[in-house]
Amino acid sequence: MPTPRRAAVQWAMRPPLTALAILALGSAVLTSCLQKSLDWYIPADAHEYVDLCVQDIGPDCEALQPTMRTLGRDISVLTTNGDTTEAFMAYARARGLTLEQFLASPLRERYARANIFPVDRFTTGTFTALDGAAHTFVCPDEWSCVMDGDITLNHSMDRKRTGTVYRASRVIFP
């Protein structure tokens, strides 16, 4: 049991330690805010979104990035919601590849071309991906669409931005 004097000293020391802890936490939050990330920053266009997505989400954006660098700004891109590492590893494994080998193979380009469309935004109608496959879109509003009757797409960028990123309900492999 601490003496009353010791208890008083411990109590007196508590506020500065609490203040230091709050300051450290605040610094960590501020530092993360200053780094461009999809959590804290709204990308200027679909290209910048995918560049940030490579850092934040994973292999689907990493597979899209090299192909997107060769394209103009008025494109619509399909990415998925959340971490896709397991799905990509299974897809690569089924073809006798590791994830790293897949990302360095022609299959990466095929995946990218199946998920990039040369249109600024989707509306209800038929649109053709860069791989030549036509897809039917039903878009009840400007923020969401259903592709081919079963893949839900949610618009994930500000309407004023160039190009569009849609979050798909599942990974779309060619």
**Low-pLDDT residue intervals, each spanning 5 or more residues:** 26-35
The Cα radius of gyration reads: 23 Å
- What is the CATH architecture assignment of the largest domain? Roll
Number of strands: 7
Q: What's the number of structural domains?
A: 2
Structural class: alpha+beta
Mean pLDDT: 80
CATH top level assignment of the largest domain: Mainly Beta
Taken as a percent bin, the fraction of beta residues is 15-25%
Instruction: Describe the strand arrangement of the main beta sheet, using strand numbers.
Output: 2-1-7-6-5-4-3
Helix content: 40-55%
For the largest beta-sheet, the strand count, sense and barrel status come to: 7 strands, mixed
**What general outline do the C-alpha atoms trace?**
extended
SSE succession: HHHEHHHEEEEEE
What is the number of helices? 6
CATH fold call of the largest domain: FAS1 domain
Task: Give the N-terminus to C-terminus distance in angstroms.
Answer: 70 Å
